[in-house]
Amino acid sequence: MKVKSILVSQPAPKTKQSPYFELSEKQKVKIDFRSFIHVEEESSRSVREQKISFNDFTAVIFTSRKAVDNYFRLAEEMRYQIPDAMRYFCQSEAIAYYLQKYVVYRKRKIYVGVRTFEELVPLIKKHKEEVFLLPSSDKLKPSIPTTLDKLDIKWQKAVLYRTVISDLSDLEGVLYDILVFFSPSGIDSLFKNFPEFVQNDTRIAVFGNTTVKAAEKAGLKVDITVPSKENKSMTMALENYIKEVNK
């Protein structure tokens, strides 16, 4: 069946140069955006209830920009003066670059991985004497704590924000040819909002292995998987799929 409409389970891009807009215009398909999940911030009281004191740590591990935002937000709320000697371990260059929003980059001890958490591990190993804080959401990839536990280091997780399912009731009865997901939480949101959802002719596009597993566990047939050898991005995969079925 031909593709005429797509729903991407993320907020709309802030820039007009987004490849999604280019895809929509080029392939003459309607693309809508809607957050299936959203983030709610934890309070300083919640952090104390977790028995977390920022003073106890000499290093912070950041796996996302949300973690960066919430760490510095709570530090300010709790009037914690972050020492200049604090070491920051960032999973990717994008996260390290974002860190500049809060610190003067050249004056701080910042260690940067390539892309995955596993690629950050050698840098953590070199500083095993540090006491590490891992700011995260309540939805933490299970492999991360497992990996840290194997390193024989002192570390602790702090849940600083939570991933919450959004209300999608206004989408009841609205049909799209393709639904695009980027996390298992997005799949959870679909079925929490629409318990009777039946896929029928709706195509499912997913990003990442954990999202594929969540979709299949929920009984969905996955039609588009990213990344793959042929498609490095979701827009590339969507375009190639559309070209094939809209002939």
Strand content: 15-25%
Q: How confident is the prediction overall: mean pLDDT?
A: 94
CATH class of the domain at 42-161: Alpha Beta
Radius of gyration: 20 Å
Helix content: 25-40%
Total of DSSP H or I helical runs spanning 4+ residues: 9
Widest β-sheet, arrangement of strands: 3-8-7-4-5-6
Oligomer: single chain
Describe the largest sheet.
6 strands, mixed
H and E order? EHEEHEHEHEHEHEEHEHEH
How many β strands by DSSP? 11
Q: Just name the CATH architecture of the domain at 42-161.
A: 3-Layer(aba) Sandwich
- The CATH topology of the domain at 42-161 turns out to be Rossmann fold
**CA(first)-CA(last) distance:** 10 Å
Shape: elongated
Low-confidence stretches: none
- Decide which structural class fits the backbone: alpha/beta
What does this structure look like?
- This protein is of the alpha/beta class and 247 residues long.
- 32% of the residues lie in helices and 23% in strands.
- The protein contains nine helices and eleven strands.
- A six-stranded mixed β-sheet has the order 3-8-7-4-5-6. The protein has a five-stranded parallel β-sheet with strand order 2-1-9-10-11, with helices on both faces.
- The model has no long low-confidence stretch (mean pLDDT 94).
